[in-house]
Amino acid sequence: MNVWASSQRCRNRIQNYAFFSGMRHSSTVDNHAFAHSLLLPKTSFALRPNPTEIEARYRARTCSDLYKWQSKNLEGPQFILHDGPPYANGDLHMGHAMNKILKDIINRSQVSRGCRVQYIPGWDCHGLPIENKALNELGEDSASLPPLAIRHAAHKTALRQIDTQRDQFQRLGIMADWSDETTYRTIDHSYQMRQLRVFRDMVENGLIYRRYRPVYFSPSSRSALAEAEARLQRRPCVALGHNRPIQLLVWTTTPWTLTANMGIAVHPDLVYVVLRRTSEEAHELPLLIVAKDRVEALTGITGAADIVAEVPGSELVGSSYTPIFASLCPGLPALEIIPAPHVTADSGTGLVHCAPAHGAEDYNIFRDLGLLGEIVCHVGNAGEFTSEVIETVGEAGNVLVGESVLDGGSRKVVALLKEVGALAKIQRIKHRYPYDWRTDKPIIMTATSQWFANLDDIKADALAALEDVSFFPAISRSRLTSFVQLRSEWPSSIHSPLEHILSVLDKKGIEYWWEGPVEEFIPPALQVDGVAVDEVWRKSTDTMDVWFDSGTAWSMLAERKNCPRADVCLEGSDQHRGWFQSQLLTAVASSPPGQRKLSPYATLITHGMVLDQTGKKMSKSLGNVTSPMTVVNGGQDLKKEPVYGADVLRFWIASVDYWNDTYLGPVVLAQAAEGVRKIRNTARFILGNIGSVETRAQMKRVLWSEMGLVERYIMHELRVLEQTAIEGYSQYNFAKVTVALSNFANVTLSSFYFDISKDGLYANALDSFERRATVTVLEQVLTTMNSIMAPIVPYLAEEIHEAFNETESSIFMTKWKPLESEWVLGGLEEARGDKKIKSSLEAEVELLLPDLEEPSPFIELLQREENLLKTLFITSDATLIDEGSLGTTSPEWVYVSTMDIPSCEEDLTIRIRPAQLEKCSRCWTFTRVASEPLCPRCTSVVHPT
């Protein structure tokens, strides 16, 4: 039989089978008379199943039940993937889906190889968004409820949101034990106690101290904000000067901060000048000091002026000046001119007003110079001037008390500047100003009294701990290390007799901090006879930093499983400044002195954002959001938003370069669905042709040594696919897996092997050698392909596994066993193993044909398809040579193997030798003559005649 028959020939053979059966001269041929004798494909494996029904059928088997089974039954090494807790606030978005699915692919690939996976899903349950959601549901304002009532309401809201997200995560096919007993939440008592113990250890290590520090503060929501929570809008600003015989001309966009002025900054390397204004009406005005490079730009403010002196900035440093409101408040001490590297001559006057209470740069400079002392701050929790403003403005400051600094307060400060003659000019321009994203109202930078962790002493240890951490992608290492290098302190929490406090809270619960009396939290040794405890001590209402909160999640690993650190942490790239960093710093800072500091993770993997198909950030206001649940379950209009199921979403996520930002839309989803469909059809073809488990149990498999060239080639390609997949999983490069899998299914199998094997599968006898060889190959192909695809599309893999093995056990309960090296074309693999070649294109194949007395159909096949052989072998050339015509030249090296010729006693000798020609720079095959720039084929394309 000619096993190389084309698909068209195969169809003709089936339709005209009567012609070959002795009915040649019949004029009434029945084309279907022998159809019953053909072994046509037969399978119950559905072509287009309902994803919802399939997932409901297999969800427990491949998710929760599988996780419990593997933790008890697998004997391989433990693999720990530590889950960064998503925020318990609302439905999942596509970023959540990408994050959890990537983690799940990693976990499943580990289970497939026999490793015991520890994966404990968690949730971040603290923070203002949850609190605001709870207050909105209550219809109350935070000022109208006691803290404990707000905490209880927020607790309920968080738990409800966890239940919603838990259900949605399970719909994505995430393998985990999702019960409350095995997941973690930052509001759990055990979690909070571990967190407080980490803080206690940092206190004992001498890292905690208290002082004022400026933070973003939203008067509209009466809360501090992280920098990422502020968005910028345009605001007007003013320029002003200091009215004295010699004036320091400064400008500011926030006049309300002038009451908290603690210094004026100059750049030591700039040149400053003293200006004398020359206009007739200004001849008695004080002199001005500005940066030399700003003189021309400031003409509209200063008017015509002569330079009467030049002063290096370094000589101004250390000089003193009288506070701007000294005339309203006699007795104010002089202030100092300080050096600052952020001062430039690009805008303003080259002199910068400093209010450390209201600016991070100002704060950092004063801290570094040791000038912080008592930070001057006159702003209350509602963003209003407090009565303390009178200390720097005098009784005239009464007009400011109670005024919002962003509204009437700023206008009244400007009025005071006019009163003391210090206002040079008001100039309205536009600049970017931070707004609270929750209330859409402006925020301010203001100092609050906080506990801090001093990170300067542990920074070197933290950086050293990162040296043995692997980063994927590798470039993300520099991102995290730069954030650690730049950080010098960290907002922390309460500081008091911690050990005693922790013992009380551990027994009576965290909420008892708000309910219990002060004396219960103070050990007797610190109480003074005859003095009420609450006259000496008070309970702090400071809030633990949210990153400290979630960042101590590493501490539960050692407690639960006695493991030093996680094997992998995977989160979005924004977590370099967040969770990745907070884990590292809390772990290092709480380590015992003298002990080697370890990072809490061995490998860090980051992924980008999911954008819409045009590259824009997904936003409800733009209407461009693609919900993961809509992809899985379908939308309201199923024609526009069909039910794709979890596997399609997972396949898309696995197929992209996830470490960069990725695009998602209807076209991309349709392409992913088509990719899954083609793989499914490949499996369906195999299942339909190999027969039932009972049929295969009675079949004698064909040994590798007995197989023909085509079968060997397919098995070789299957092993190449498998090795590519193993490498892809080990490098967390899942796109490498999906590309190789799709190419193998669509090209190697569907377009080639299936096409040429149909004839034998359909028409040969069930126990024929050719059919058994094909079925032997197809069995292994399906087994290996299913092991490869299972971590990515588990529902499809479970469905295939059940149909193939007629069992209800999970595919993940069968360990993935890689193919033996015998399936590789031996000579090529030996040459590669001996480092003679890196790529098979560096070699040539010679097939030495034996001198046969009788014609061999197999040899005739080789001769007819000789031009195809180099494509089969993926070498630069492949030729047929008679044994008698073998040349006398000796190549640099040669590898020889043999294979049986079907229905013949002779063997076919296969010689692997180095390619004789040079590498073509266009197609990379070694087919170029040394004197030519390209090979003949590429020359004909690039330079057609």
From TrEMBL:
Coiled-coil segments on the chain, per record: none
CDD domains: Anticodon_Ia_Ile_BEm
Domain Aminoacyl-tRNA synthetase class Ia residue range list: 64-662
Gene Ontology terms: biological process: isoleucyl-tRNA aminoacylation; mitochondrial translation
Pfam families per the UniProt record, alphabetical: Anticodon_1, tRNA-synt_1
EC number(s) reported in the record: 6.1.1.5
Keywords: Aminoacyl-tRNA synthetase, ATP-binding, Ligase, Nucleotide-binding, Protein biosynthesis
GO molecular function: aminoacyl-tRNA deacylase activity; ATP binding; isoleucine-tRNA ligase activity; tRNA binding
Family membership noted in the UniProt record: Belongs to the class-I aminoacyl-tRNA synthetase family.
Protein name, UniProt field: isoleucine--tRNA ligase
Organism: Mycena venus
